[in-house]
Amino acid sequence: MLSYFCKLGLKMKIHCFSQKMFCTSALSPLPLPSRMETHLWYVLPNEVKSQSLLSQYVDLLPPPEKDHVFSMRGDELQKSALLARALVRTTISRYQIYSRVSPRSLVFKKNAHGKPEVIWEQSDDWHPPQLHFNLSHTSSLIACGVTVGSPIGIDVEEKERTLKNNILSFAKRYFSCEELEVLSAISDPEVQRHKFIKLWTLKEAYVKALGIGFSGAPFNTFTIRFGGANPNPEVLDSAIAVVPLEKPTNLTTNWQFKQLELADSHYAAICRQNDGLLGGESMKVIVRKTIPLVEEHCVPRIDSIVRVDELT
Amino acid sequence: MVSFSNMGRSNLPLSFRRLQISCAAKPETVDKVCSIVRKQLALKDDISVSGESKFAALGADSLDTVEIVMGLEEEFGITVEEESAQSIATVQDAADLIEKLVEKTSA
């Protein structure tokens, strides 16, 4: 436990893409993402072992959230639920928003479809930031995406996750015809399974970004298309687009997608609005691995375009 | 003359059958849902599952929930519209919806 307090006093030098970043204590403020950036934070439950740290997380929560955490069946699920709440509260508080925002003071509500949002304090001399967030978790990784000026949806899934049902039967029932064709065309079962998981996370990220969920946008009412004239197999997200299949439709298409791998163990999908600022460029994502209240570090990502010497 | 001690539904007039649809699902239906849920979530034996159990509290994520619904569709020969997925929070919700859909299918 003492080592955690020692780490709080350390200055950490961090390389992130070609930038050098200094990270002091875990609680020093961070600039909000620009309108062109998406921040993705994640925590690995296996790395959080200290009971006293977990108690600190419980202390951050209002009674209804505590009740929810302890209503989960079993220690692991309780820990996961607790980390998810701790992650979202500490992450939002890390940004230079307002001196009175702290992990404990944040208030959340759910929209009509159950998507969580922040309720900002209203005051005459302060305009709340247009901060959007979205959470996703598996038993082994919990992630929180943050944007400014655009709704965001994220979904994470273990790469090795298997379906209890047959993949093509599942896709026939729930996905679009085009997606079923794409999956059917893959002969290697492992490759097919990985493609399924990538498709699932992208579709989930989209309906979560829209804020209407699976019920509001059944998965067979839109196709996720991997396209572009010359898709580069090393770039996971080359030209991913959403194509609604019904007319008329309440599904909008001005959305941008990013697919990436986290911790070598998970596929993550991010969906945010494409407001034309980025032109044809792919989504700029800054990934940070964290232990809430304790430490964080940027995770450098290898995009196909970045050369090795640019990382130093 | 209708005998109220008769537990078999087929002897009751249609109006009585409709009344039963709005009551809780049969225990056998709830049990079947519990076993499909247990299998999907690979629950340890010490975790009990009953009508009141919430899918989310058992650790079901969105993919698990859809897989469970697909398993229920196959087991009961029904189609559950995706729009209904949001209304299913507990095992009991699923069982009640199944019986409603089974009635519709057989009517």
Automatic annotation (TrEMBL), chain A:
GO terms for cellular component: cytosol. Keywords: Transferase. The keyword Transferase applies. Its EC number is 2.7.8.7. Pfam families: AASDHPPT_N, ACPS. One of its GO terms (molecular function) is magnesium ion binding. Transmembrane segments: none annotated. The keyword Transferase applies. Residues 53-142 form the 4'-phosphopantetheinyl transferase N-terminal domain. One of its GO terms (biological process) is lysine biosynthetic process via aminoadipic acid. Residues 151-226 form the 4'-phosphopantetheinyl transferase domain. Coiled coil: none annotated. This is holo-[acyl-carrier-protein] synthase. It comes from Deinandra increscens subsp. villosa.
Automatic annotation (TrEMBL), chain B:
It comes from the Eukaryota. It is found in: Plastid, Chloroplast. InterPro entries: ACP, ACP-like_sf, ACP_chloroplastic, PP-bd_ACP, Ppantetheine_attach_site. GO terms for cellular component: chloroplast. The keyword Cell membrane does not apply. GO terms for molecular function: acyl carrier activity. Pfam families: PP-binding. Belongs to the acyl carrier protein (ACP) family. This is Acyl carrier protein. It comes from Deinandra increscens subsp. villosa.
